[in-house]
Amino acid sequence: MEIVTTRFGTLNVDDERVIDFPKGLLGFPERTRYALIQTGEENYFFWLQCVDEPSLAFVVTDPSIFFKEYEVPIKDETQAELALTDLNFAQVFVICNKVEDWLTGNLLGPIVVNAQNRTGQQVVLTDKKWTTRQPLMRLQAQVPLAKSA
Predict the structure, then answer these.
(1) Domain range spanning residue 45?
(2) What does the alpha-carbon distance between residue 110 and residue 93 come to, in Å, rounded to a whole number?
(3) Does residue 90 carry a pLDDT above 60?
(4) Residue 52: CA atoms inside 13 Å, Cβ hemisphere, count?
(5) How large is the average pLDDT for residues 136-144?
(6) Complete DSSP assignment for 97-133
(7) What is the pTM of this model?
(8) C-alpha distances in angstroms, 32 versus 18, 21, 24, 109, 129?
(9) DSSP state of 139
(10) Is the pLDDT score of 140 beyond 90?
(11) CATH number of the domain enclosing 42
């Protein structure tokens, strides 16, 4: 599939990298299709690029890379909506933002994806152990992610 982006120009993306969000993401309910794009060799950060809106993209990461104890309780309702019959196929991502000298992750609003059917949903956690701006790593002066999100 060919998609147009403001950050990367026109990209040819494998259909297997497109995730359908029937409810959209928080704040963007009408935008339901996103491509997961890897921009470098490292596997820590990806772009979640909206397929239908070239300027809409989020930096995302797997929060367990930074917090081994981070868990997302997936409600039965969410499992049903994602047709998630085996929790081993649940992938979790969080949206990252730059806050001052830190790259932070929204650990209260994780994204859950069924890797089998590439359907996703952003959920809202009530566990006050985490925040919407959980520090992930301190940024250095010229890190490309410093301009993200």
Answers:
(1) 2-143
(2) 6
(3) yes
(4) 10
(5) 73
(6) EEETTEEEE-TTS-EEEETTTTEEEE-----TTS-TT
(7) 0.89
(8) 10, 5, 5, 17, 29
(9) P
(10) no
(11) 2.30.290.10
CA neighbours within 13 Å on the CB side: how many for 78? 18
Q: Specify the amino acid at residue 24.
A: G
pLDDT of residue 40: 75
pLDDT of residue 146 exceeding 80, the answer is no
Range from 31-45, 112-126, 131-145 carrying the lowest mean pLDDT = 131-145
How far apart CA 118 and CA 32 sit, in angstroms, is: 12
48 falls within a domain:
yes
Q: How many domains, the chain?
A: 1
Q: Which backbone phi and psi does 28 adopt, to 5 degrees?
A: -135, 60
Is there a domain that residue 61 lies in? yes
Q: How many CA atoms lie within 13 A of 143 on its CB side?
A: 15
DSSP 22-59: TT-BTTBTT--EEEEE--SS-SSEEEEEESS-TT-EEE
Q: What is the largest CA-CA distance in the chain?
A: 44
